[in-house]
Amino acid sequence: MDLHLHLPAKSSTVSILTSFTNKSAMIVYYCVIFFDLFSSRGISIKLPENPNPQPLKWWQSEIIYQVYPRSFMDSDGDGVGDLKGIESKVDYIADLGAGAVWLSPIYESPMKDFGYDISNFTNIDPIFGTMDDFLSLATKLRENGLKLVMDFVPNHSSDLHVWFNLSVHRQEKYEDFYVWKNASGYDSEENPIVPNNWVSFFGGSAWEWNEIREQFYFHQFVAGQPDLNFENPEVLHEMLEIMKFWLDMGVDGFRMDTVPSMFEDQRFLDEAEDPNRPPNSIPTDYSYWSHIYTYDLPATRDSWQISENYLISDGKERCMMIEAYVGSLDKLFLYYGTKTKPIAHFPFNFEFITRSNQVDPFNMLILLLPGSAVTYYGEEIGMTNTNLTWEETVDPPGCQAGPERYQLFSRDPERTPMQWNYDKNSGFSTGDSTWLPINPNYKELNVQAQNETSGDSHLKVYKQILSLRKTDTWKYGSLEAYALENGQGFGFARIYKGSGFIVLANYLDGDMIINVGEHFKDIPDSAMVYTTSVNFQPEMSVGSFISTKSVTIRGKHSIILTFSKSENEKKNDTWIWTIVNWILLSKANFYLFTIISDLNNGHIVKPVWNLQNNYNTV
Ligand SMILES: [Ca+2]
Ligand SMILES: [Ca+2]
Question: Which residues cross the membrane (predicted)?
Fold first, then answer.
């Protein structure tokens, strides 16, 4: 399963945040910001520049570019993306300025959940290619200086995995590999009754009857994804062996899928209704229930600790990112572990939701605040969700929800193929059909168009942003951030050794006129326009100098200014590492950002954010 792309976006009913671009499942962990801007009031964030900078680890500084393999590039015309297709586009990813590629699952799978149901964890599915294709892709990535992160799905296997068959037949060692329970009874027609009321993420009972074993098995996701039983140490052992297999193949890290789902409370008690459930939810919906016995149990975190020794024992710095939708900041923090017992390098989720027509302002925000960042394919050109009909819907949670409600749950809209050019299927495939339709807007919105235009484009802005991210200012600079104009906008400045940049973004419709010096310290009266959102209003030339005393930004636009302070203007910043909380209050929600600095390595290491009142986070 792969919750990330849709749930926060699609099922939100209270939040004023609406999904806007699908291809904009943004990430953040290392530093994150998330906010809604309707009448919010802000308190500032201030952190000094780093006096003792150490080189950042690759996963701290480099953009991780997420490829959804089915939709990136199809090399053989069957309408489904594949590894050879990805390999043919490595140059493109490298040219963006990204530093790593994260591949969503490519393992052998019957594709009931499009690859998150794995029938062989150490082989490549033929639809994507062969192991040779994988090694060839890995080599090409390495040659282009790109790291490779693999999706890893520990919670469940496919029901077609050999382990499951052995478990069904109670074969030694495998008998308890899955979560089996007896029927709680039988109804008047002799049908077995489920052990309890647990509901799957994708809707309906999480229990499936197996006629051979005459027991129910538990599945947090589709019935074809039986949950592995992590109470059994053999299961964890097998999973660690599989991770080692891929590390030995040269991968640089993992993104661990739905880790909070791994353990279930062994009392198997009924779960209660969630008092904060969405008003339109129904009892067969996952969001209807409070998942205190099936989600985010402490055992989850105890089981997954990064073995730093193993991860870097050969001198190769590897990365571990853990998917965790856990609702509160406190809970999310637990997934970092502690210094002596680290869990994830960073927990990860897709709750940073972007807005229609604001891809540039949000990219500036997420990529230039301190912290790791992920770009989901297509985000760099501002791809948008594709409206699909019920007949076109293939995603299991969408199909499960039925023709009236599929749009609340389907992740198909954000998975439509990459829009490369003006050609048939936007250059994604030469086939007569594709596994999901191409968004019709490809005729205007595609990579070729944005590369070739003589004017500005999201792609050009994106590359400019990534260039700035490679500077010492981004890596080690101070941070000063404010909500602007009663929450209409947001601005932040980064300064290192007297040079810096400032990002100003207006997220609402009206004009915003900013006197930079009113909010920010140490910004000169004049600064250079580094880049702007596409079609920035009022028009400004990149490279020109403007007064910072009055910067006008029309609605939904953003700008980056760069400047250099003269030596004698530098002041000694007080070096205080601290915990900073930043609260934004808005009409509907309240968001808390926390940044925690690290006393030892002198860089901000754990900025995270939290969205309160969001019951759609899992
Ligand atoms: Ca193909
Ligand atoms: Ca589980």
Answer: none
